[in-house]
Amino acid sequence: MAEQKTLVVYYSRTGTTRQIAHALANALYADTEEIVATGNHAGVFGYLRSVIEARRRTSSAIAAVKKDPSAYDLVIVGTPVWAWSLSSPVRAWLAANKEHLPAVAFFCTLGGAGGDKAFGQMQEIAGKPPRATLAVNAADVIADRYAPALASFVTALEPGRRSETTPSKTSTAA
Ligand SMILES: Cc1cc2nc3c(=O)[nH]c(=O)nc-3n(C[C@H](O)[C@H](O)[C@H](O)COP(=O)(O)O)c2cc1C
Questions:
Q1: Torsion-angle region of residue 57: left (phi > 0), alpha (psi -120 to 50) or beta?
Q2: Where are the domains of the chain?
Q3: Which amino acid residue places its CA nearest to atom 27 of ligand 1?
Q4: Separation between Cα atoms, residue 171 and residue 151, nearest integer Å
Q5: Which of 35, 45, 50, 54 lies at a C-alpha separation of 20 to 30 Å from 10?
């Protein structure tokens, strides 16, 4: 693959999205930036708070980030799906950085439903279509069954394959 400077930005409440983010970063020799929510999203109350923030489409408070997305050729943004939406910490990062985004691609992990809706929200905030999307079921992450989908996504991100009008769509769903 021709050299392109790539950043993988992600939020993960329980580690699933982090696992995919790190696998992608390894495959693409990319830098990573983990979004850290400063509010507590852990436990039962944290779960409820996460659902409410996602349903209301509010951004949660996040810690200052270290990487400047405008220094990259491609930024891959990853989120868990919350209430058929993108997570509130990723919403906050996208809203804060939308003016500084190069080409983008999106990935999500999910229990089974809402990935396309989350990608639509991400595109709306970013103000541009993703070069490709990847949705991975959490069960496939736990069972280590995501390598073929990840490889397809990585291939779709090669510079020669870019298509800004018809993004490549990969999913581990049957
Ligand atoms: C608050 C909350 C809401 C969720 N809502 C959905 C949903 O609408 N659809 C879905 O398929 N999975 C849903 N899930 C499951 C997560 O998307 C899934 O477990 C994801 O892989 C978690 O990623 P993480 O470990 O990186 O936080 C939800 C999980 C949480 C915590």
A1: left
A2: 6-171
A3: 13
A4: 11
A5: 45
Top-ranked range on mean pLDDT: pick from 38-42, 67-71, 165-169: 67-71
Residue whose C-alpha is closest to residue 79's, from 117, 108, 38, 119: 108
Whole-number Å distance, alpha carbon 141 to ligand 1 midpoint, is 13
CA distance 19 to 147: 12
Q: Quick: pLDDT tens for 104-149.
A: 999 999 999 999 999 999 999 999 999 999 999 999 999 999 999 9
Place 167 in a pLDDT band, splitting at 50, 70 and 90.
Answer: confident
Pick from 148, 150, 72, 77: nearest CA to 107:
77
Is the CB–ligand 1 distance for residue 142 below 6 Å? no
Q: Please tell me if the CB atom of residue 32 comes closer than 6 angstroms to any atom of ligand 1.
A: no
The span from the CA of 159 to the CA of 171, in Å, is: 21
Question: 6-171: which CATH topology?
Answer: Rossmann fold (3.40.50)
- The Cα 122–Cα 79 span in angstroms is 10
User: What is the enclosing helix (H) or strand (E) of 28?
Assistant: helix 16-28
Q: Compute, in angstroms, the gap from residue 12 CA to the centroid of ligand 1.
A: 10
